[in-house]
Amino acid sequence: MTPGPTEIPTAVRERLAQPAPNPDIEPAFFERYRALTANLETVFGTDGVVILGGEGILGLEAAVASILEPGASDRVLCLSNGLYGDGFADFVELYGGTPEIVRSPAEKPFDLAALESILETEEFLAATVVHCETPTGTLNHLEPVLELLEAHDVLSIVDAVSSLGGTAVPAEKIDICLGASQKCFSAPPGLTVASVSDRAWERIESTETPSFYANLEPWKDALAEEWFPYTHLASNVLALEESIELLLEEGLESVFERHEEAAALCRSRAAAYGLSTVAEKPELASPTVTALSVPGEATTIQHRLLEEHNILLATGLGESEDDILRVGHMGHNARDELVARTMDAVGEVLAN
Ligand SMILES: *Cc1c(COP(=O)(O)O)cnc(C)c1O
């Protein structure tokens, strides 16, 4: 019950075990890849989705690398209320851009007034935003941010790795929207998915970034030309194919509802134990992950849950490692019965 990688359902593991067509040579692979891309476009609600062979972080790095021009010191605004938000700034520096972090505390929404005033006075090529800050279970409201960025002609890059497929993501308003296989899709880690707008492709094609693997550009015409820049991760692609089929069979609306319910149950069970959640306001609480505040006890509770109940939760990240216990109700694991069993076990550990 961690917030990624999530438990992989049997059907997805079975698909992973199937013989995979040769991704470079066999037309059957391209056909399946084309169908998977179309299904992912339904999930994103956009056209122009690419699938990169690599863990979710590859997508974040590739998105930033793809739009920056070396030596140009392009300015990128990094909106942040958490670790992943801050992390974008490191990638901007790595690829020769100039990051400007606009920060607010983890339990607070983005400061729209501060964002507006900096956009009025300064020029930015792009802005990076995290939808769900997985370390604190905070779901950021993207719409007002995206409207401001659009009004100031700033390219938007959104990390939706831990929300895509678990809750609605307004990807049609985002220039580069990133997801990954191992969170709400409940497929194995190993693939990044990205929806890229036409104006983002224009920017990407006009830059001379010295990166190939960490770059979106080589994937732009992969489907049209039936040529992959490198051997695709064929078995991972098949597993993702199955997991997206399961998602669409169930229906996005009902999947999102299942996440909302599981999250609400998790929060109410936590409240009954007197535990507070890091994202205190319900409108900031993510439907995919809940971060419980357990100062100084997270590691002990985590170990006991695993030993005594065979349930795995995650602790906090960074400085708050031992203060936060995170329950993932994400993808296949976003089910009331699984959350109830988890919170029963948390209650037993807390009581003894
Ligand atoms: C999981 C996750 C990623 C991918 O990074 P990991 O190395 O799998 O942790 C990126 N962004 C967010 C918000 C995530 O939750």
Q: DSSP helix count?
A: 12
Helix fraction by DSSP (H/I, runs of at least 4): 40-55%
Bound molecules: pyridoxal-5'-phosphate
Alpha carbon gyration radius: 20 Å
Structural class: alpha/beta
Mean pLDDT: 96
The order of strands across the largest sheet is 1-9-8-7-4-2-3
Shape: globular
SSE series: HHEHEHEHEEEHEEEHHHHEHEEH
Which regions are unreliable across 5 or more consecutive residues at pLDDT < 50? Answer: none
Q: What is the count of β-strands? A: 12
What is the strand content? 15-25%
Q: Whole-Å distance between the termini?
A: 21 Å
Largest sheet: 7 strands, mixed
Key features of this structure:
binds pyridoxal-5'-phosphate; alpha/beta; 7-stranded mixed sheet; 12 strands; 3-stranded antiparallel sheet; 352 residues
